[in-house]
Amino acid sequence: MLGLPTVLITLRPQNSREMGPPRAIHPVGFLLGDCLGGPFQVDLQRRVLRDALRRWEAREEPGGIWELEYPDYQRDPAIPNDGEIIQDA
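-> structure tokens emitted (89 positions)
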């Protein structure tokens, strides 16, 4: 069977593992809404995307999620509650 090769950039690795993506990376500490990095962090966004492409090129068993650290990531102050959706009761 042929398919389109994909790479998941996940901010919720525990949820993504349940779905069993063939290839995935997890930028550790990134907020929901900042999957490639914060606004105007162009160099960081490019690095995350390149790391995702490196994951796609890696010949490893499917299902593994690379957890990658990016110390220069700056959280977006416009994203409240760490990106979590909070509903009023």
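The chain has one domain: 8-70.
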